[in-house]
Amino acid sequence: MNQLIPIHFRLNGQEIMTEVQPHQNIIELLNKLNLTGARESCGQGLCGTCTVIVNGKAVSGCLEFAQFVDQKEVKTIEGMEINGELDPIQDAFIATGAFQCGFCTPGFILMTEQLLNENPHPTDDEIKNYLSGNLCRCAAYPEILKAVHLAAENRSKK
Amino acid sequence: MNSSSGQLKEIGQSIPRKEGRYKVTGKAEYTHHVKLPGMLIGKIFRSTVPHGKILSIDTSQAKAFPGVYAVYTSEDIKKVISEPYYGPAFLDQPILAIDKVHFVGEPVAIVLAEDPHVAENAAQLISAEYEELPAVYDEVEAMSSSAIVHDTLKPSGTFPDLKHLIGKKNTNIALDYHLKRGNAESVFASAKHVFEHTYHTQQVMHTPLEQMVSVADAQQDKVTIYTASQSPSFVRLEIARLLGWRENQVRVKVPFLGGGFGAKLYIKLEALVVASSMISNRPVKISLTMEEQFYTITKHPTTFKIKSAVSEDGKILARRCDVWWNGGAYADIGPRVTQKSGFTSAGPYDIEHVDIESYALYTNRPPSGALRGFGIPQLVWAYESHTDEIARSLNIDPLEIRRKNILKEGRPQATGTLMKGAEIEKVLECVASKIGWEKPFDKGTGLIKKGRGIALAFKAVVAPTTSTALVTINADGSCILSMSSVDMGQASDTAMAQIVAEVLGIKTFEVKVSQPDTDITPYDMATLGSRSVYHMGKAVKLAAEDAKNKIEKMASDLMISKPFQFKEVFIKHYGMQAGTIVGFGSFIPTYTPPDKKDGSTSNATPFWMVGATGVEISIDTETGHLTVDRLINVVDCGNPLNPKIVETQLSGAAIMQLGFSLTEKMNLDAGQVTNASFADYKIPGFNDIPVIIENEAVQAYQVDGPFGAKGVGETSTFGVSPAIANAIQDAIGVRINELPMTPELIYRALRKLHQNPLGT
């Protein structure tokens, strides 16, 4: 179990060179780097709590091996805030109160970003379908729906 | 200091959550992320049989696995804790199984290693041999089964109504609550209409997305525990008791919780990490997987037989409730659920003759505890389904029958306690008007049929319980609120800061709320049962008032006239920016325990929660598929401290209950949970929420609550399940009496109705 694989990737714009074990997943890699926004919950890629963006595409960090991010670009929730300024999606989540315990929130925010990149003005049904892979046990869904609409509005103003 | 003008500035405002920025940036702290130098990870080896004597445990291969630090069984635990049994009601649960196992999934051994993968692999190399014993899974069978889960009952001595069970043998009954009001039997004998129905609820799990997790760092004479717990004060008390230590030797720190819902109460992993850390002399962390959570704590399955005598015009004359609560292998808080919910089993109705028999049963299932409602949703499921069945049989409108029978202000409830501050009528009328009950309703044509239903419920808050709080004013005038209420998503930090801000005449964002740390934050019974706003809210208000009085006294002694800045008082008093003012608040309500004979009490609860649900549904009669088109939640939560937070609680709790109503069920095969995963256990996702959700808190004021407020975290769960069942009957004429109401159940019932039943 002690075999180490060197990897080199970009994490939220920063060059990272490190080593991982063959069985370690992306969440374990991020935790080692003290990033805690992506969290393993269901462990089966069914809840979206571990969502991270790899080369512009959302993946379940609990299912993807860490070694596969070698030579890739990884973005996590920690990369959304730039120079102390929140992304409009994060602002919208705060303004609409779109979370309770906050454990699933980073996953929802990253999926929302991907959604709005693909579809800047989604309908209710489009939002629900796109975010149906993210679970929120506190069930802040009605507020999240409002947050996504508000974020879409604010992004278009920018 | 700002002068108080009588106009509230902070209370009643929809102030955004204080911790919002931390949560949207992923920086909020959870126990999930705690890392300590030298920390070992524990992985649990669990029982594979539902009931059996442990003949042997072979840990040799696991111990020899490269990277394993240690493997412990109960023999090792006993070296540091001689009586390693815990529990809030019964001292029945061993830290690791001793002599016997009582359910599939019970912890038997633990492997420690620095690498979690090593610990996990090694745990799979442990084997155990058992002599299997007869097992019982059903709560009604457990009453008379020859399979006895525990050889001897061991109540903890905390609760007087359990004392008579000390040392009892040959029984699975962990609490029996009896209420007798009037003479129901004689009314049944002479009544024109008597209805009797039986309803069932299933076993479900809270599934917080931050799984149960605890870390312990034990030293020679002290231990620090970092834990995802709703009850830090209880953890301190119980760990100190186990170790024979003083409370000040145990420090419990709780950051934010990634959801709780009642799962993270009392002792879960704390005793195991403490014992493991003491034996290994290393910090130890255990973080459960989603699967393991299903073996740790669940919601009580129930059977509820309810019988009513009713007059021709729909007046309920007498009611008998027999409720069996399936507590699983360990009592946890089940006996409290049985008693407290026992008080209100007959519903929010004015009934002269009531008999209630409520039993907590041990079975060989994973243990049951509190889950968002403390037993109330199980009861409401039965009594509000029953109300509609009576109405339909007598051809009375379901709203009318409720109007005719509801408990009005000042009337005695089944225990004899007079109703006060419970807006039952207002809540019922509000839900009726919002759903438009008097207006015609399109029942649908063709294959899609539509229906609507309502349900009404109430709850007595668990009593008596204590909260205490500290409000500190620093020399620069800044404030800190120190309390042991746990913010698990319900936004208690924000609501409590609003109370402090209102009293001190400052802004909510200026109040820092320190996270529970039992070395610093004073005692609180627990964050459960919607008790915090009322109990902790009052303690916080008293603490803030105490701090305010102290600084005003100091100012007047210094001849500083109002309005003044806090800072100038400190500077004048201490000659520089120095000093601290501490305000303390403590609150425990009055309470009268139920009479041993007839279960009556003149003071069952300090406040009542009242909730009603209205739903409109569609059913595809070709498949049984059900859609909730509209969900209306109406509650009496007193005067909302923060309307936005209240609304989020209302829709969140109702959607959670929607999962328990329609999709969630733990399936068991010979005691083994067969769907302990999100792949097979379906919690509500985005596509499962109703198209329209409406929430309303009726105008109300809890006279002795802080600024007129009371708890609301559970209220909108109460009526969801029966409102849907009532709507199903309205739509297609069939009655579903068990949960969850799956398309299969609905379709089978439809086929049976049309005298063309499906085979099994």
TrEMBL record, chain A:
CDD domains: fer2. PROSITE patterns: 2FE2S_FER_1 (PS00197), 2FE2S_FER_2 (PS51085). The keyword Iron applies. InterPro entries: 2Fe-2S-bd, 2Fe-2S-bd_dom_sf, 2Fe-2S_ferredoxin-like_sf, 2Fe-2S_ferredoxin-type, 2Fe2S_fd_BS, Beta-grasp_dom_sf, Diverse_Oxidoreductases. One of its GO terms (molecular function) is 2 iron, 2 sulfur cluster binding. Keywords: 2Fe-2S, Iron, Iron-sulfur, Metal-binding, Oxidoreductase. The keyword Cytoplasm does not apply. Residues 5-80 form the 2Fe-2S ferredoxin-type domain. Pfam families: Fer2, Fer2_2. This is Unannotated protein.
